[in-house]
Amino acid sequence: MTFRRVIYNSISSCNQHLKSVYFKPREVHRCVAIKSKMSLNEAKKIAAYRAVDEWVKNNTAVGIGSGSTVVFAVDRLAQRVKEEKLEVVCVPTSFQARQLIVENGLVLGDLDRNPQLNVAIDGADEVDKDMVLIKGGGGCLLQEKIVASCAERLIIIADYTKNSHKLGEQYKKGVPIEVVPLAYVPIREKIQKQFGGELKLRMAVAKAGPCVTDNGNFILDWNFPQDVNFHWSDVNRDLLMIPGVVETGLFVNMAQKAYFGMADGSVKTQDK
Ligand SMILES: O=C[C@H](O)[C@H](O)[C@H](O)COP(=O)(O)O
């Protein structure tokens, strides 16, 4: 097995689609499984580039989100830092984000030294009409929410498949909920009883057993009932009251603006 194949196989037990952006287009063409993602990647790229161009200014601290769309944002940020000699400190939301910052030669910060960020730029699994987000499809919700809460603005970058009227319309994997491992069974039962739906312990892909987050926790993916009109702010608060729930992938009243890369090459924006 070649070194590149080992890397390809090892990318993310939690987030398979990251593979498509870690490999150059030339290599993507060779792999049938990720070839169909090309237009989505172009959509992610135009959204990410536009958001970085509009929101990252000189002498600022920027939260760097996680996932496949953020790869393009970091790429653009690195270009701008080089070309415009921008001074920007980047605070990561995951191990993946930390690696992206370091590998792109950007200045790595942390919340100890940069507790207040000018902006955080992050992806989302779904964005509804009220700008409520589902995040955590790649298992990075906890640090993402902390970093977003420290930023003056949370700017979302995504492709057109994330743009929904109602949560659950496009993203079918449910709301990720990060939980302390020893409590996952009682938490699963409590949520099922209180809200209905089904919760699945997220399993790792290239590892036996469950997906373990950067914080050493498990993830329950809550496939919530589609026929209930949830008030997401209340649901989020109630979920967080359950002992052992560390964080939810529901981001309510956090994002101010979303950029969606569209299939026709345009970028659609949505404001809170
Ligand atoms: O846990 C992962 C993060 O919340 C991502 O921002 C989210 O899953 C969107 O990722 P992507 O840009 O790969 O669609």
UniProtKB/TrEMBL annotation:
Keyword Isomerase attached? yes
Pfam families tied to this protein: Rib_5-P_isom_A
The answer to whether the entry has keyword Isomerase is yes
Task: Give me the reactions it catalyses.
Answer: aldehydo-D-ribose 5-phosphate = D-ribulose 5-phosphate
Q: Which SUPFAM superfamilies match?
A: D-ribose-5-phosphate isomerase (RpiA), lid domain, NagB/RpiA/CoA transferase-like
The pathway it acts in is: Carbohydrate degradation; pentose phosphate pathway; D-ribose 5-phosphate from D-ribulose 5-phosphate (non-oxidative stage): step 1/1
Q: What is this protein called?
A: ribose-5-phosphate isomerase
Kindly give the InterPro entries that the UniProt entry links to this protein.
Answer: NagB/RpiA_transferase-like, Ribose5P_isomerase_typA_subgr, Ribose5P_isomerase_type_A
Could you give a single Gene Ontology term from the biological process aspect? D-ribose metabolic process
Q: Which UniProt keywords apply?
A: Isomerase
Q: List GO molecular-function terms, semicolon-separated.
A: ribose-5-phosphate isomerase activity
The UniProt record lists the EC number as 5.3.1.6
Regarding protein family, the annotation reads: Belongs to the ribose 5-phosphate isomerase family.
Any one cellular component term from GO for this entry?
cytoplasm
